[in-house]
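Look over this entry.
=====
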Amino acid sequence: MRTRLSWLFGWCFAALSGLSAAATPLDNGATEAPRPNIVLLLADDLGFSDLASYGSEIATPTLDTLANQGVRFSNFHVAANCAPTRAMLMTGVNNHRAGVGNIIEMIPDEFLDSPSYQGTLSTDTVTIATLLRDAGYHTYMAGKWHLGHSPELLPSARGFDRTVALADSGADNWEQKPYLPIYEQANWFADGERFDLPDDFYSSRFLVDKTIEFIDSNAESDAPFFAYVPFQAVHIPVQAPQEFINRYVDVYADGWEALRERRYRAAKTLGLVPQNSAMVPMTTTTDWQSLDPDTKRYQAKRMAVYAAMVEAMDFHIGRLIQHLKDTGRYDNTVFIFVSDNGSEPSGTVVDSTLGNDLLQRLANYNDDYDTLGLPGSFNTIGPNFASAAASPLGFYKFYVGEGGLRVPLIIAGKPLAVPEPNRIIHAFGYATDIVPTVLELTGTPNPAGRYKGRTVEPIIGRSVLPLIYDRTERIYGEDDAIGYELNGHRALFLGDHKIVYNRPPIGDGLWHLYNIATDPGETEDLQHQQPQRFQSMQRLYAQFAVDHGVLPVAEDFDPQRVMLRRLVRERFGGYVFAAAIAVILLMTFGFYRKRLLRPR
């Protein structure tokens, strides 16, 4: 059995958290406040500056209203890809100790004997849904799960009363089909059983419709509810209704560099980053001015569809909020909105047009300009616009620069009685903090490492409510280290500082030290100015890796090759056709080996 992590919070803190969570945190005087409903909204691959309240040009009035009424976090971190974050959001446990060191699709076969790399949520963890259901809550989920396909691992077996869940890493937003041939089908489940999507399906609309249906199914109940709504937006394929796309067709004509700069200035104006902070240029960004007019037009349309998908998600969140108002539930509901990682940089390569076209035909997709984002269309934004979506941060999804790990977090709702609405909280926070925050909000005891007579992984996160109520400036002290690893990329946070190692070809394969409070763009390496801190944090990372079962990857490790091998083995067996498909995929879906441009 792996050694328990004693240096990183410890059992003592978990026990104290349980005591503090047992009392109702919201004081309304002599009368005990009713337990609030909780709505946890999770965006997929949304970049740090993709909301208007975080500096975006995209219209997000619903989420901006929540930000104005509640609080925004400028320094909140998650994992660099989806399932590890989802594991932490559901359990408050570090993703490696929860069994999800990576998404299952990227875990090499030789890692699968390790409990840290199952790619599915460990049964040694207890979900927030289970804890809230035990406390008398109705629990609902509608959206992407990606923590296990088998009956005992689906959300219907992990504490949710009603569910409609996509078990895969992603799928089409217009119909029931897989977005990549890794999957034979798009695996949707309703209350644990296979489920067929309706003919008029669009993901954001459908997930809100189902959430409303689940809430209304207990309309006569006095019990509160917990609703988890993990959207497909804006995961690939990037798709949106035409009426939303039309609003952005001309918005991105000046390109990704100009957009990254505009958002950088907006983030400083809003106070999300320090006025004197700098922004690093990304080597994967192509010079916009070097492109021909047709290529510029096509690339701008790709980003227009992305913006439309973000706005469509916001619109449907607004429908959910309006329904709660219409049914008298809004005044007793707390909303938490967050993204699962930074912006998604994958896409197609310019010089493999034949392979790309063949793959799209096999998957029944096209990428024609006129129908981009509509049914049958496969769209991405690539690393160029992904860098703009992460502005003013460096890197993006799959990497441990701030652009891959730092995301929007908004918490709002009348039960919070926020003392200073529209405030930005600059204290460091982490994905594991959502569970203890919800436990404190709902007066639900923290299991503190034991659940129904058995030992479970203890919740290591910390409630952010002391930050919201201005009872403290930090919830993590100078000695509270938080480590993270993905595909050999490594990071450790300690106080205001972070050490970071990004593997080639996008990273340089070297450790760096940054003060991410004053330099969120990670532009000034402090390792030579502060050698003792640098060495101490490297030692802490090494201990983190031991305590969490982090396995080293080979120098030439490529998660895309893992995905290709899985595809060949599970979908095509040993047929020669599989080799052809593998070659096509290698050309088509390689991460950033070549520029993502295709003129139309």
Observations:
- The chain is about 30% helix and 15% strand.
- The longest helix spans residues 293-326.
- The mean pLDDT is 90.
- Residues 350 and 597 are 5 Å apart (CA to CA).
